[in-house]
Design a protein that fits this description.
The complex is a heterodimer of chains A (111) and B (114). In chain A, 0% of the residues lie in helices and 59% in strands. Chain A has 111 residues and is mainly beta. In chain A, the strands form 2 sheets. In chain A, strands 2, 4, 5, 9, 10 and 11 form a 6-stranded mixed sheet that branches. Chain A has a 5-stranded antiparallel sheet with strand order 1-3-8-7-6, with no helix packed on it. Chain B is 0% helix and 49% strand. In chain B, the strands form 2 sheets. In chain B, strands 2, 4, 5, 6, 9, 10 and 11 form a 7-stranded mixed sheet that branches. In chain B, strands 1-3-8-7 form a 4-stranded antiparallel sheet, with no helix packed on it. Chain B is globular, with a radius of gyration of 13 Å. Chain B contains no helices and 11 strands. Classes of the chains: A mainly beta (111), B mainly beta (114). The interface between A and B is medium-sized, with 23 and 24 residues.
């Protein structure tokens, strides 16, 4: 089956940099996605990595190492509004077209 | 607003009652997903439609759950004989055929079964 591991909580201060790691175990891996969810809100797509390396989108970057079954989301210049839950998700052949989500990492940004 | 919409946003029901939720996806999206999310967990896949065809169902989807997408546009999820364990946020997401990793989620329907 599939499994994803990510830390349950991370805390940081405004302006800092934080890295949220995700390790996964799947069969027939396609790629790793990251979603952000504010309290009471809908998950929102942040990034997707199908190939090894770093993808940068503004203050957020995502990295993937397929050989290590590992990825991370890097958030720079943290702002209070970045306080949210962050989920890594995979799509693999066993899951079909659906995304399999991790349990999420709650990021708390303080001033 | 051209995003995914869901109705109702909140539903309180008594155990044993039937409930139905509606999802309106982004209009040009032919793929529609239902997920369930409980507190402190990530969304869990329930079922998937491509146009009007229900192509995948999770083992989580008991026979009390049924979903339809009759014209390939909006979808409904019905839960019969609700149980307290059905209390959760029910999320709908849609995407195009070429962007399966980028799923656009609706705001969800929060169900509380008393």
């Amino acid at each position: 089956g599939q499994s994803l591991e990510q830390p349950s909580e991370v805390t940081a201060v405004e302006g800092a940099i934080v890295q949220i790691n995700c390790t996964y175990q799947t069969s027939g891996f396609y790629g790793l996605s990251w979603y952000q969810q504010h309290d009471g809100g809908a998950p929102t797509f942040l990034s997707y990595n199908a190939l090894d390396g770093l993808e940068e989108t503004g203050r957020f970057s995502s990295f993937l190492s397929r050989s290590d079954s590992y990825g991370y989301l890097l958030l720079q210049e943290l702002q209070m509004k970045d306080s949210a839950s962050y989920f890594c998700a995979v799509r693999d052949r066993q899951a079909g077209t659906a995304l399999i989500f991790g349990k999420g990492t709650t990021l708390s940004v303080s001033s | 607003d051209t995003g995914v919409s869901q109705d109702p946003r909140h539903k309180i029901t008594k155990r044993g009652q039937n409930v139905t939720f509606r999802c309106d996806p982004i209009s040009e999206h032919n793929r529609l997903y239902w997920y369930r999310q409980t507190l402190g967990q990530g969304p869990e896949f329930l079922t998937y439609f491509q146009n009007e065809a229900q192509l995948e169902k999770s083992r989580l989807l008991s026979d009390r759950f049924s979903a339809e997408r009759p014209k390939g546009s909006f979808s409904t999820l019905e839960i019969q004989r609700t149980e307290q364990g059905d209390s959760a946020m029910y999320l709908c997401a849609s995407t195009t055929g070429t962007g399966q990793e980028t799923q656009y989620f609706g705001p969800g329907t929060r169900l509380l079964v008393l």
